[in-house]
Amino acid sequence: MAPMFAPLRERNYRLWATADLVSVSGTWMQVLALNWLILSATGSATAMGAVVMLQSLPVLLLGSWGGALADRLPARPLLIAFQALRALLALALLLPGGNWPIYAVALASGVIGSFEGPVLGRFGSALVSPSALGSALALGSVLSSAGRIGGMALGGVLIGITGPSALFVINAVSYLAVIVALLAMRLDDMRPLAVADPADGGIIAGFRYLLRQPVILVVLALSFVLGSLGRNYQVSMAAMVSGPLGGTSGSYGLLSTVFAVGAVAGGLLLAGTGRSTLRVLVGTGVLISALQLCSGLAPSVLGFAALILPIAAGAVVFDTVVSTRIQLDTREEMRGRVLATVGIVSSLSGIVGAPAIGWLCDTLGARGALLTAGAVTTVAAVAGGVALVRLKGRSLSFAILVGRSNRQPA
Would you indicate the residue range of the signal peptide (predicted)? Predict the structure, then answer.
């Protein structure tokens, strides 16, 4: 079986992938309904930003605790409990009370996500063999992108017919699909993962372990820089369309669609090759950073779209390789805590990056922002590659697709 379909050999993975597609679609239907509800009630983009902030902050404060918990407790019952709680939160959005239920649900969702993220990471590596993990994560990215596109499209149709309440109910039901899939899985087919000793030091032990992993620290640093300055295209796309490109709302919609298509293509490319190596990580980081710099010089909307497509594909490849290397290159009993750190870095890059890109657009203009951010991320990607070469003690080719997929070499 080709690398792309290797994870589908596993019945448990097939169940999980199907349920995940349903759940992601429901989640994005709820996101659409929430955005519409907040904007129609307040007319304020700041209120929408507050909801995003309330979902992100708990990850920064509680993520490390969630990682320590993930390393000690079995993942499957925890995930069932989390899905049930999320279904209840979706139904709570039906309660009257203005915007306060929305803010409360956003905060509670962030708290759940702080603990759920590391558990999901460990659970995914129990469903497939290490050699198929990269393809499994890449397929997961494809399903997430497909669920987002499908959920937003269907939600856009339904919200005009039923209003937002029906979308909250649909999302609540979608979590039941995940619970059913988890209950239907065969426990004997799962890979047993080492668990942490309750007396191993918890969060402090996780930080000490991470500080002794210089390769992982370099990967996390690259993830932060490229995520904060090279991934906030929702901001820079809008600035380019409304500014130097002289586009319309339809132009922005076109670019958003191209970005989504690129994300799917990137996931399929990585799933098809199965090569989640440090070579791919560094090569992709340099490529998308250089393309970002070039996008600041795009003469038209179509020229900008032609660069957005490979940037979106490369971003998915980069993020998926980061997740794969984190899981394959760390001890199983420490994996939850390291994955929690990845979640914290991702949240920080969003919190820092979006305002930073917005400030650069206001200060230097949209083109200047892309040129500056692209130059910084290109230098960071090259410096990260040099650091990894020295740490690994051997050459890391910048070719995108090299290395044997069956052993997932660095």
Answer: none
Eight-state DSSP code of residue 333:
G
Nearest CA-CA partner of 4 in 267, 406, 272: 272
Shortest CA distance to 121 belongs to which of 84, 79, 88? 79
SS (H, E, C) 145-207: HHHHHHHHHHHHHHHHHHCHHHHHHHHHHHHHHHHHHHHHCCHHHCCCCCCCCCCCCHHHHHH
Q: Print the domain residue range for 22.
A: 1-193
Cα Rg of the chain, angstroms: 21
CATH number at residue 34: 1.20.1250.20
Place of tokens 């995520």: 227
Instruction: Write out the two tokens for 182.
Output: 């988890």
240 phi, psi to nearest 5 deg = -70, -45
- 262: which 2 tokens? 């690129």
Closest CA to 152 of 267, 316, 35: 35
Clarify whether residues 186 and 296 are in a common domain: no
Q: Model confidence over 304-351: pLDDT tens digits?
A: 999 999 998 998 889 888 888 888 788 888 888 888 888 888 888 877
Same domain, 160 and 59: yes
Answer with the one of 136, 165, 193 that is the final residue of a domain: 193
Is the distance from CB of 67 to CB of 114 less than 8 angstroms? no
- Mention every residue, 6+ apart, whose C-beta is less than 8 A from residue 249: none
Whether residue 216 is found in the same domain as residue 280: yes
pLDDT 10s digits, 31-46: 888 877 776 776 655 6
pTM of the predicted model as reported, rounded to 2 decimal places: 0.77
What are the two backbone dihedrals, phi and then psi, of residue 43, each rounded to the nearest 5 degrees?
A: 65, 20
* Residue 16 to residue 85: CA distance in whole angstroms: 18
